[in-house]
């Protein structure tokens, strides 16, 4: 696919300037189909190495194998194929929505899920860390009135570690004096922190350029040995860069969720008093939740600033913080796939309704979807197993189906 599309680009066919430019919908869908087949082959080969337990009398080994299989890995293969090869087949409008709205809010929802979903802390000022990451990028690329030292002027991708560290420090500074608060009081304090950051950015004209914000931020680029990549007007390039960020963050956070720290967060969320009684340093653990969640928001801020190229303090209003909280709750608190799905669905829905219903009715339809979701699926779109057990219990529902019993266990 790469070779023959590159051959067409050499002839400047249909205005193509490089491989993949004119592959067409059929070519991309074929790539997706081949990826799904390769993934299915891998899953089958991996499953054959698993020893199948003895089947109950009257139940074949194939049926036992099918019953023991899970949908998760197969669904993951389909999602990977779709993420890689479906966006190029979308229109320019949907590609822009995917990159500038859905992708960014997915990153923010992953970070806020640490604070709200895992640690059980209601944070209404999360967008402040997003602003800090964006302004850090603008400063390090020399696009603010205050310039960095010449040795510290960096490209956006090189600014990511600095944005992460600065957001970590900001998370600690916010959390240290406030995390002894709980519930609504903590939510009010974090809400105030978010507004303070926006107001300071708006009024500190000599430092942040005030209400005019930052502009002409350069696009990301990589120059390492033979690797020479520069992102530009092609929206899809930013999408694949975003996929790299999301995959790295999800892998790290998945390990974190099942670590000792992740279990401490779960204990605090369920009962902070009981967690403290068992020896957990609740203030330290909650502080880590704020800091780690803020670091993800910093990465999102770097990506946003370099992809959009300009921003103002009005990009970081309170409404955006509330939206991210709604995405996490809608998708399923404490669930990484749920947080991503909630952000994707609720960001896609307003754009889908743009051509379906009048503008004045759009929010009503969105509200109705959220209301129905909270009534009929309160645990969220893709709930965490713990959350599902809390709401539905651990016992299996009664079934009229006859269950096969191994001969050794019969009477």
UniProtKB/TrEMBL annotation:
GO terms for cellular component: plasma membrane. GO terms for molecular function: branched-chain amino acid transmembrane transporter activity. The chain crosses the membrane at residues 27-45, 65-86, 98-118, 124-142, 154-176, 236-253, 324-349, 364-382. It is a multi-pass membrane protein. InterPro entries: ABC_transp_permease (IPR001851), LivM-like (IPR043428). It is found in: Cell membrane. Pfam families: BPD_transp_2. Keywords: Cell membrane, Membrane, Transmembrane, Transmembrane helix. This is Branched-chain amino acid ABC transporter permease. It comes from Nocardioides mangrovicus.
